[in-house]
TrEMBL record:
It comes from the Eukaryota. This is Chemokine interleukin-8-like domain-containing protein. One of its GO terms (cellular component) is extracellular space. It holds the Pfam family IL8. InterPro entries: Chemokine_b/g/d, Chemokine_CXC, Chemokine_IL8-like_dom, Interleukin_8-like_sf. GO terms for molecular function: chemokine activity. Keywords: Cytokine. SUPFAM superfamilies: Interleukin 8-like chemokines (SSF54117).
Length: 92
């Protein structure tokens, strides 16, 4: 009977965790850009009150990144600037 209760408790905790943040912890470590296949930006929502950034690596693994990391802010800023320059050249 005790194992049934323990099993039910673990199922309940899995269900509760499913509605929370995808990234309970995030790294500020810099990851080489050639190693990143995609970056997902997840905004705040009712069950998670923090911004989340998930890097999908070329190996298929997902790594949670700290959205306030200096290197990530620089990558976002440079990406936005290159997009603006590309749009300007299309309009010219």
């Amino acid at each position: 009977m005790l194992s049934t209760i323990a099993g039910a408790t673990s199922v309940v905790s899995l269900i509760m965790r499913a509605g929370r943040c995808h990234c309970p912890r995030a790294t500020t470590a810099s990851i080489p850009l050639w190693y990143i296949k995609d970056i997902k930006f997840i905004t705040r929502h009712p069950r998670c009150f923090k911004e989340q950034v998930i890097a999908v690596l070329t190996t298929g693994h997902e790594v949670c990144l700290n959205p306030h990391a200096k290197w990530l802010k620089k990558v976002k800023r440079e990406g936005i600037q290159s997009q603006l320059q590309a749009e300007e050249s299309k309009q010219s």
